[in-house]
Amino acid sequence: NRQWVLSNRPTGEPTLSNFELVEEPVPEPGPKEVLVRTSVLSVDPYMRGRMRDSESYADPWPVGEPMRARSVGTVVESNHAAFEAGDTVTGNLYWAEYAAVDGADLEAVDAGSAPDSTALHALGMPGRTAYVGTVDVGRVEPGDTVVVSAAAGAVGSVAGQIARIAGCRVVGITGRAAKVDWLTDDLGFDAAINYRTADDLSDAVAEVCPTGVDLYFENVGGEISDAVTDHLVDHSRVAVCGKIALYNQEDGDDELVGPRRLHQRTRTRVEGFIVSDHADRFDHVDARLRRWVEDEAIRYRETVTDGIENTPEAFLGLFEGTNLGKQLVRLEDG
Ligand code: NDP
Description:
The chain is α/β, with parallel strands linked by helices.
């Protein structure tokens, strides 16, 4: 069983040297446990937070222990009544070929006609995050102008499409031309801004949001937040989902502290959220997402890296924006 452990904690940008690939015997499932062979695993920005030894909404992962990942896999052996060998399941497993976990922590994959891997994005945690952020936290209304940052990623692409379905004008901010094209040509965004090539990002937002911004779905922070904040209208909302531009900063770094001009937006409601706090909504949210994916009202793309040995590169790519849509790692025999 090859698996990646956190070998030491990064300072600033994580590097390959923070991870070590170790080989151990395939675990034996204990009472009520299920042995799962991973087919596809998800790398996510929040993992950077778990690598850091500081106070957060979740405990840090211990050095020397395997990195965790939501994954889809096949049951090899089951000591839990709910599962049998051959079942396709999803759960919080590891950057590993095999995992033995309590069956209570697994769910059967129910992706309908969509691929099972969608349980890791449009029909899984990122999709739920997009829904909670736009609908419950952002209280999206028809006619709103909605700006989404990291718009071509797993969460952002779904958030923008939910806003489009709700009858909004939707603007995405992203860092590559191919992503701009995907958002506007395939996903129905009204406009998309490339933050790397825009002369002045605040002017670029003004140009495509002539009546201002009613809802900002915040995934990035820093200068992108500053540029959007300039155009928030009275009674606008900011759903703070994440701030990936700040995740590699250390205490004392202060170049990227945006949004810096929020004090000029006194009638804006800014609300952060963690998707897992909204579990009581998931039955409803999942049913919605499934219908939209079935109807192709929500479309998705996957960027797939092959081989467990390439998992750290796939993770590091999230901070470079090498992923279009959801970044996944497919295991050789998955
Ligand atoms: P994505 O699929 O969006 O991948 C990350 C993307 O972020 C990259 O592709 C890149 O796109 C962009 N990015 C990375 N670094 C920077 C930077 N310095 N400046 C601007 N853009 C950058 O990841 P997810 O969809 O999984 O996550 C998106 C956000 O949602 C993250 O902030 C994450 O932490 C948050 N999140 C929050 C949850 C919650 O419960 N609150 C749950 C899940 C996710 P580009 O090429 O456009 O730069």
